[in-house]
Design brief:
366 residues; alpha+beta; 6-stranded antiparallel β-sheet; 4-stranded antiparallel β-sheet; 10 helices; 14 strands; globular
């Protein structure tokens, strides 16, 4: 377990400057003649030219329908206490609460509603959704062997691993599905290459056409390689409002503005542990709150029961380093998002504190 924690710290040291400085290049200026690294499955990290791996899409601000909290049974004086409690977490850029498809509260401690934050591993849940869209379109099957799409996968991936195993972070064990091993780099980014191959277009273009544009996410940064394979592990920069759109899509059962984006079948599978003996708290790159056995966090924290004790059992979340969080509560049709840089890389602890701050408001909505 110590080796896994050290490897994650090394990943942070490498990836942070790329995320921070890479966003200044537009995809239209990418130099496709740059030398590519010889990764087994054709994924180039672009480390020889970090500016070339940035894909930036800028447009109008992403607007939500806004309603008063009082219309949803929430007292503004209570929200002031919540604002203070979230502030005390430290390093928060802001947070938003969505109920019944409308924004009922947002608070920013620096920047504003359009400020882009590094989403870290929340990116994984966006990537899982791209797999879900491809599955909904009939382009691939969740139980396809990885080798159907990539002849020579990255060596750490077991030869019998499937797309499902990659989505559940169990592709490296022998047999696949037997052990949870959290990855944010070459193993998980294999899914991006699969989306590119299955769709016949670079995954960055697939994401824009079939996920970001339909959801109305106009301003974001999603890093990728020189072939247009976006990084699924941790390559997205977006605002709190943008992340909330993904959460609302899942609350809506895969439908946005009357348009089916991803199937309910996929969402059901994504929010159920396929391999509960490996990790009962993990679905398809989403963290679950089911009382289904033993769960493990990204850093190896272990427990049983609900990961967030007082949150509804069918709630689930996208979660990334330093407290990037999308809490999705289908029973209440609530999405609660926070972003920032709280200096604790175990985001489970940050999310527990975030839930404690919000609980009185969330459970009082009407």
């Amino acid at each position: 377990m110590k080796i896994q924690i050290v490897s994650k710290i090394m990943f942070l040291l490498f990836f942070t400057p790329v995320l921070i400085f890479g966003c200044f290049a537009d995809s239209n200026t990418t130099n496709t003649e740059n030398r590519e690294s010889p990764e087994y499955f054709g994924l180039d990290t672009g480390v020889n030219d970090p500016s070339a791996v940035s894909y930036c899409y800028s447009g109008t601000s992403d607007e939500w329908i806004i309603d008063s909290p009082e219309s949803h049974g929430i007292d503004r004086e209570v929200l002031k206490k919540v604002d203070a409690a979230v502030f005390r977490l430290g390093g928060r850029q802001g947070y938003v609460i969505i109920h019944d498809n409308v924004l009922i509260h947002e608070k920013y401690y620096y920047g504003n509603k359009d400020t882009l934050n590094i989403a870290w591993s929340v990116t994984k849940s966006f990537g899982a959704t791209l797999i879900g869209i491809a599955y909904t379109m009939g382009l691939l099957d969740l139980d396809d062997p990885v080798t159907r799409w990539i002849e020579r996968p990255y060596s750490a991936i077991h030869e019998n691993a499937t797309i499902r195993h990659l989505l559940c972070q169990t592709a490296e064990s022998d047999p696949p599905g037997d052990e949870f091993k959290y990855d944010s780099a070459l193993v998980i980014n294999t899914l991006s290459t699969i989306v590119s191959k299955a769709s016949g277009m670079p995954s960055k273009d697939f994401a824009k056409k079939y996920l970001m544009d339909p959801l109305g996410i106009k301003k974001y940064v999603w890093l990728g390689d020189l072939k247009g394979n976006i990084f699924f592990g941790a390559g997205l920069k977006a605002s709190c409002r943008n992340l909330a759109r993904l959460g609302q899509l899942y609350c809506n059962g895969g439908v946005w503005n009357g348009e089916r984006i991803v199937s309910q079948e996929f969402i059901n599978e994504a929010t159920t542990p396929s391999f509960p003996e490996a990790n009962a708290g993990y679905g398809f790159l989403f963290w679950l709150n089911r009382d289904a056995g033993t769960w493990y966090s990204a850093l190896g924290t272990k427990g049983t029961g609900r990961m967030i004790r007082d949150a509804p059992e069918n709630s689930f979340r996208a979660q990334g380093f330093f407290g990037q969080i999308i809490n999705i509560i289908p029973d209440l049709n609530i999405v609660a998002v926070t972003m920032g840089t709280t200096l604790n890389i175990e985001s489970l602890y940050i999310n527990r504190q975030f839930w404690n701050a919000l609980e009185s408001v969330i459970l009082s909505v009407e």
